[in-house]
Amino acid sequence: MKQIFAVGFGLIAAFVLTVSTAFAGDVHIKEVLNEGSFTGASGHATSGDVRVVTTKDGRTVVLLSDNFSFDGAPDPQISFGKGGKHDASTLMGKLVSNNGKQHYEVPAGVNVADYTDVFVYCVKFNVPLGVASF
Fold first, then answer.
1. pLDDT digits 0-9 by tens, 8-51
2. Which of 21, 40, 43, 121 has the highest count of CB atoms within 10 angstroms of its CB?
């Protein structure tokens, strides 16, 4: 009986630990630099939370939370901006999915302290699809 309880308690503890780090997925967060929530742009519905973090292995990463949602468009990519203006030199890649948790590594040489926004940006039509400000 004691062994069953110990195993059950261990599984519950593992579940609690997993839930507490679920936002980060396979990214081990050292420090949260910025965080915000998306609002739609250019007639698109974009919502959910975003964090810019440094990882324990020294990378800087943009994390979209499991509540991220986007209604879809051609060529959506993640990038930074400042004061509502997108900066194309900060593109981090195509959106992996229109929904859910995902992460994007910030390119070398990009100083995240220079930016105030994370964009979901349509490169094909040169329009913002969603913006999160911090």
1. 444 433 333 323 233 345 789 999 999 999 999 999 999 999 99
2. 121
> Quick one: which of 38, 21, 39 has its CA closest to 30?
21
Query: How do residues 71-86 score in pLDDT, each as one tens digit?
Result: 999 999 999 999 999 9
Residue labelled with tokens 């997925």: 25
Q: Say whether pTM exceeds 0.90.
A: no
> CA 11 to CA 1: how far, in whole Å?
16
- Give every CB contact of residue 133 below 8 A, 6+ residues apart in sequence: 36, 84, 116, 117
Q: Are 33 and 112 in contact (CB under 8 A)?
A: yes
